[in-house]
Design brief:
Alpha-Beta Plaits, eleven-stranded mixed beta sheet, pseudouridylate synthase activity, EC 4.2.1.70, RNA binding, PsdUridine_synth_cat_dom_sf, Ribosomal large subunit pseudouridine synthase C
Amino acid sequence: MHRWTVTKEEAGLSLQQFLQKHLKGLFSLKEIKSGLMGLACKRNKKVERFGSVKVNQDDLVEWLEKEKSEKQKAISFEKERILFEDDFFLAYDKPSSCLTMEKGILEEINKSYTKVFPVHRLDKDTTGVLLFAKTEKTAAYLESLFRKKEIHKTYLALVSGLLKKDQESVLNYLGKTGSFSGQTIYGPQSSKLGKFAETEFIVVSHGKEHTLVKCFPKTGRTHQIRSHLKTLGHPIVGDVQYGWEESLPFNVRRTLLHAYSIELTHPDTHKKICIVAKTPLDFNEMEMHLIGNLWKER
C-alpha cells in the first residue's frame, strides 16, 4: 500500500492527477481509473472513488497496491474448495476475483483436476457454490432442472440501509439499460425488451445502517439479485455498478454477495441434497463491521 500527505504545492489537483503523479511507472491511467471504481483509494481514511475530487493540503491519500497484485494473481484450482463430488457432478466453493468461464475456474478444473461441464455461472466477485457436471448427460439434466426451476439457490448479501419489511419480493422484466466502466447494466424494461425476473428477499439481521438479507432468485437472469436490490433502494455493499455510493472508514474490495446454498434432486439417487458454502473471511469481517455480529446458522 502507498500512503502520501498532500503538500501545499499539490493542493487543488484532482485526485486522479495526484495519483498519476505519484504512481507514474507503476500504474497506467486506465488502471488508476479502474482502481478508483474498484474502491482501491482512500482519502482521509474514507474510500474515495471519484477521480475528479480536489485534494487539499495535508489530506492523507492511500492507494491499495494489493488490488493490482490480486488482479494479476493467477487463478488456481484448490482441491480443498470442493464441497461435493461424485461420478455425476462437482460443487466448488468459488473465490472472489475469479471468472467462471473464460480464463476462469472452469478452465483450471479442466486443466488441473478433471473434465467438467458448466451448467450455470457466478459473477466475478460473487463467492460460493458453483456446480459443474462431470458428463454431458448430467449437464443436460442439471440444465433442465434450472429451466424447470427445480434447483433452489440461496444467496446472502450485505446491503445498504434498513429494509422496511422483513420480507420483500421484486417481479419485473430485466434488460440492458446502459453500461458502467465497460460493464453492462441490467434494469427494469418493458416485457418486449426484457425477460421476466423474480427474487424474494428475507431479512436475516441488521445493524444501524445496513442489513444482511437472504436472496432467493426464482429466475436466473444476469445480475438479477444486484439489479433487484437496487430497485428496492438497497444496493449491495461494494456494488458501485448498481448504485452503491457509501464512504466507509474501511476498504470494501468487492460486491458482498455470496452463493450460500443450492438444493437439487440428485440425477442418479433422485434424493434431495443441499450443498452449502460457508461465507468467506472478508464477508464475515464486513458483517462484523456493518451488522455487529455473525449470523449463527452458519
